[in-house]
Specification:
Number of helices: 10
């Protein structure tokens, strides 16, 4: 048995043990409204998979969160490069980056409910949560570039475009890739949390809230499992897209 097979077998055994513990706790509590059994949750999950509205909801929320995530990567990259090149720009943008990193998620959502369409909440929140982290990681990566390399490039009159392609990109891409992967799970959590507060139609957050209102704990667990699966699949696809070397990040 190879080490990979042993590792997978160990993970399966651990998962089974946790399911058994879950079943034991559910049997002891005997209150579906507090802790439904794994079988009951599984039935609710299968029921969701048979509904067309489930896929529409998943697709709607996921697309919005991904849009905010992609925008955060683009803006964070541009801001990091400009901040690295121009100290004045870094000083100018730093306060808003600190605000975005420090302000509570609930405050962000409430502010946005005054100023923006609630159906777009997950886009804005995903952007606000991810952009500062991507910006900071990439900026740190650019700052770590050996100044002697840049001085040599200046001596040989290397154009800025070639510097970006052959120096900045090569040296800073590891910082960018690691930040993208680490933030990928955060944007889903933040985006769906925003939906729970804003309650836009056809959203995962709205369904989570309805499950809470109607005390439908099996359905709440089923939707939560769906979120975990989507987030895990997205992170796995990101790692594959960025390359095998980054799958360990």
């Amino acid at each position: 048995m190879t080490s990979t097979t042993k590792n997978r077998f160990r993970k399966i055994i651990i998962a089974i043990i946790w399911l058994m513990l879950w079943q034991i706790m559910a049997s002891l509590i005997k209150e579906e409204i507090l802790l439904p059994s794994p079988l009951l949750v599984f039935k609710s999950f299968i029921s969701l998979l048979g509904q067309a509205a489930f896929y529409k909801t998943i697709l709607t929320s996921t697309i919005k969160i991904l849009v905010g995530f992609i925008i955060s990567i683009a803006i964070g990259t541009i801001f990091a490069y400009l901040s690295y090149r121009y100290k004045l720009f870094y000083d100018f943008i730093s306060p808003i980056i600190r605000v975005f990193r420090s302000i509570p998620l609930a405050s962000i959502v409430i502010f946005l409910l005054f100023w923006a369409d609630k159906s777009l909440l997950s886009i804005y929140v995903s952007f606000i949560m991810a952009m500062p982290l991507i910006f900071q990681n990439l900026y740190d990566g650019l700052e770590s570039i050996d100044r002697k390399i840049l001085e040599m490039a200046d001596v040989y009159k290397v154009s800025e475009i070639k510097k970006i392609r052959y120096i900045y990109k090569v040296k800073a891409k590891y910082f960018l890739y690691s930040s993208i992967i680490s933030v990928s799970g955060l944007v889903f959590k933040a985006g769906i949390a925003a939906e729970v507060i804003g309650l836009p139609q056809n959203s995962i957050g709205n369904n989570l809230y309805n499950a809470k209102v109607y005390l439908d704990m099996p359905n709440l667990f089923a939707w939560t499992i769906s979120i975990l699966l989507i987030s895990s699949i997205f992170e796995y696809m990101l790692k594959r897209f960025l390359g095998v070397d980054y799958a360990r990040i």
